[in-house]
Amino acid sequence: MLLRRSCLVHPDDGELQTLAARLCESPDFRRRWDSLAEGVSDLVFVDQATYSFQHPRLGALQLFAWRTRAVLDDRFIVVYLSPVDTASADALAQLGTAISPSRPIE
User: Domain map of the chain by residue range?
Assistant: First the structure.
């Protein structure tokens, strides 16, 4: 659904249109793509919520979560998390610094 929406919003994006055309070579993808064109909206769910939890070192964190299932394989769920407030963003930055490698990955 999101890829189809992107293709409709950016019809002049050649790379995006090429990607969609290549994916549509798959019969299963083509079936779902055509169903979206016909207005069938139950193929993809989008759920969103805000979660609050207490991290043992970083304290209170609030995250906004957006999730959907992968269109090509219903066994997988795609989740995107973002901090709700500045305090959570700062805490996540500290966590990222703590677990990042000491040198860049080559």
Answer: 1-41, 45-106
Residue at 83: amino acid letter = P
Quickly count: other Cβ atoms within 10 Å of residue 61's Cβ: 20
> Can you tell me whether residue 27 is helix, strand or coil?
helix
Return d(Cα 52, Cα 17) in angstroms, integer. Answer: 39
> Residue 67: beta bridge partners?
47, 79
- pLDDT tens readout for residues 14-48: 998 999 999 999 998 888 888 877 765 554 566 77
How far CA 78 is from CA of 66, 73, 100, in Å, comes to 8, 11, 23
96-99 long-range contacts, CB within 8 A, separation 24+: none
The whole model's pTM is what?
0.46
CB burial string 65-90: b at 16+ within 10 A, e below: eeebbebeeeeeeeeeeebbeeebee
Geometric angle at alpha carbon 56, from 58 and 54, rounded to 5°: 75
